[in-house]
Amino acid sequence: MKKILLLSLTALLGACSSMNSTPKATLDGEVYYLQRIALPPTATLEVSLQDVSLADAPAVTLAKQSGPIKGQVPLPFHLNYNPADVKPGHTYAVSARIEEDGKLLFISTEHNSVDLNAKTLQPIRLRVDQVR
């Protein structure tokens, strides 16, 4: 009886986990800046992957990572996104910003496009510039 109960629970857990699993793809990289200054201990990093195809509409965010910074530059990031959200012919870009207590310290100022349809995605290096 215990074996039947154990097998039933195992099958049920397997079915539940397969229903909740969404296909995921990842985009990894690091954020850096050229200034030789340390970040404040309370600084936060936000990195976003966005669909920037339409010039006259807001960008659509596919993935975002934000949180406190641990350490100094380069700052690693890891974005998970659903590959089903990637549309043929669309343009995608990654951007980053570093803030402290809501005040912007650094931001990416260049367009950092990424080809999400590539067979293998190389790690991305995002440069952010200091806000004066």
Automatic annotation (TrEMBL):
Q: Does the keyword Lipid metabolism apply?
A: no
> Residues of the signal sequence?
1-20
A Pfam family this protein belongs to?
YscW
What is the superkingdom listed in this entry's lineage?
Bacteria
Keywords, in A-Z order: Signal
Checking PANTHER family in the record gives: GLYCOPROTEIN/POLYSACCHARIDE METABOLISM, GLYCOPROTEIN_POLYSACCHARIDE METABOLISM
Q: What is this protein called?
A: Lipoprotein
What is the originating organism of this protein?
Pseudomonas endophytica
